[in-house]
User: Which sequence fits this backbone?
């Protein structure tokens, strides 16, 4: 099992030209099976991989998640000389995710996504990492693709691939080395390697469309095994262009539409980025 999982990750890294042994990697970890498995795999394969955990302040769920991450860091990652960074939303942003969402009058999942994307990219750039890696697996990417196709979100479809270049200053290169592996395969890997992870879904994710898309794809997979793989890998094959061409196109598009946020400097299409807008709205609500 270990050999199979490691081989699939190596194929993903090489086929998508994700990174090399000389690169410094920052892994976004959540305490779940996928991100902890990714950290374990990359360390065992000899890559220089540190990690960042963002504590969202979701009561016992966040406490348990951080506990799993810290335990893995101390028991496994530290032996490879890897470092765990922790960002606590309540300390840095002034409130937990629920309160911030309420203050900004935005859905909790949307608020969560905005903060995590910002902090992961910010940490990678600020601390000089070459690549930021996430634990998205085949099930995640197939579900995301289904949602983007159903709504014909062309902008998202263009960046649906497992490797996105650092298209301009302020953006870190982003990769998904687990896109060839399913949730079940990664769960089996964690059991085999005694990786303790949070089993429960985030309590804020109840009703999320992504879960519905996964349920639909699981039903299709039961009736026709291999559906997820054919769907997502088929999309990658149909949209495949030379890596340099893809990188150039994305970079050109980003340069023509993005510019530094007036408050924090990260790339955005508006005068201020989504994160700064979120924080401004939350602070304005608090001041009333």
Assistant:
């Amino acid at each position: 099992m270990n050999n199979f999982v490691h081989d699939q990750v190596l194929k993903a890294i090489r086929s998508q030209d994700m990174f090399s042994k000389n690169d410094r990697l920052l892994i976004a970890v959540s305490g779940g099976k996928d991100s902890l498995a990714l950290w374990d795999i990359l360390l065992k394969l000899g890559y220089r991989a540190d990690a960042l955990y963002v504590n969202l302040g979701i009561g016992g769920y966040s406490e348990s998640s951080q506990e799993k991450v810290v335990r893995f860091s101390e028991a496994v990652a530290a032996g490879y000389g890897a470092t765990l960074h922790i960002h606590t939303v309540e300390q840095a942003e002034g409130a937990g995710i629920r309160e911030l969402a309420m203050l900004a009058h935005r859905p909790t999942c949307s608020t969560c996504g905005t903060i995590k994307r910002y902090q992961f990219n910010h940490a990678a750039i600020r601390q000089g990492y070459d690549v930021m890696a996430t634990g998205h697996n085949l099930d995640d990417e197939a579900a995301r693709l289904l949602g983007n196709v159903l709504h014909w979100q062309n902008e998202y479809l263009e960046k649906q691939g497992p490797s996105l270049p650092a298209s301009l200053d302020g953006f870190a290169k982003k990769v998904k080395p687990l896109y060839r592996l399913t949730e079940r395969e990664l769960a089996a890997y964690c059991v085999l390697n005694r990786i303790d992870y949070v089993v429960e879904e985030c309590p804020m994710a109840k009703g999320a469309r992504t879960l519905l898309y996964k349920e639909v794809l699981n039903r299709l997979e039961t009736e026709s095994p291999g559906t997820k793989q054919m769907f997502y890998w088929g999309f990658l094959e149909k949209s495949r262009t030379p890596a340099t061409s893809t990188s150039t196109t994305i970079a050109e598009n980003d340069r023509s539409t993005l510019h530094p946020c007036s408050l924090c400097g990260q790339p955005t299409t508006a005068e201020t980025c989504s994160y700064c807008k979120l924080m401004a709205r939350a602070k304005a609500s608090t001041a009333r």
